[in-house]
Amino acid sequence: MENMELLKIIKKVSEKIIENKDYLTELDREIGDGDHGVNLARGFEKVEKELPTMETLKPFEILNKMAMLLVSNVGGASGALYGTALMKGAVYLKTKEEMTPEVIAETWSEMIKGIEMRGKAVLGEKTMLDTQIPAYEAFKIKADAGANVKECFEFAELKAKSGMESTKDIAATKGRASYLGERSIGHLDPGAVSSYLIIKTINDELKG
Ligand code: ADP
Ligand code: MG
């Protein structure tokens, strides 16, 4: 994947999140404090504005810059979680020359470790991880089988979707939604949905 392609994808992701600001906020109003969309849109508006300054940066520097912008502008748990993910991914990516499927898979794996480390959550706790982990695993299966980036993301998107949907039927045990316990059942997790939107946008963009 080339630098400009990465920046184009980030632009599309930013637009998608901003477009879904009200939807994500509405989901968070049901089981949280009603700010997930507002939080993320604030961060991604900054990212979008800064994109022209990233054109000469290396991919790992782009991830670091994004992390910084999200951590300092998103606020809320999701800012720290997405920010940590990007920083952790950047540490790995720094040592690599090319963004091959293998490298992307390993970067993604590091990002998930960052989220797990920061949030102390595991799969099945009704968080963004319920989208991210199955999506990453799908990506990895395809990458190991020699598929190209586009094919890897196509399968990842499919598993991201079912992962996101799975959050509807479970009770939250991490984050604000855990205060509701069983009453969080029946609602999608806002972070699982934002993660899905990000993965879907990357896939849509690669499909062209
Ligand atoms: P806040 O909860 O501080 O208001 P947001 O509303 O922006 O932050 O983000 C909430 C989302 O963050 C949740 O829907 C969930 O996906 C994710 N989240 C919250 N806590 C954790 C955690 N400990 N581990 C992983 N993800 C989490
Ligand atoms: Mg919230």
Describe the structure.
- The structure is a single chain.
- The chain has 208 residues and is mainly alpha-helical.
- Helix content is 71%, strand content 0%.
- The longest helix is centred in the middle third of the chain and has 19 residues, at 101-119.
- The mean pLDDT is 97.
What brief labels describe this structure?
globular; binds magnesium ion; mainly alpha; 0% strand; 208 residues; binds adenosine-5'-diphosphate
Beta-strand percent range: under 5%
Q: What is the makeup of the main sheet? A: none
| Alpha plus pi helix count | 9
The ligands found in this model are:
adenosine-5'-diphosphate, magnesium ion
Helix and strand content put the structural class at mainly alpha
Shape: globular
One letter per element, helices H and strands E, the order comes to HHHHHHHHH
| Percent range of helical residues | over 70%
| Arithmetic mean of pLDDT | 97
What does the radius of gyration come to?
A: 16 Å
Distance between the termini: 14 Å
Would you report the number of β strands? Answer: 0
Q: List the uncertain runs.
A: none
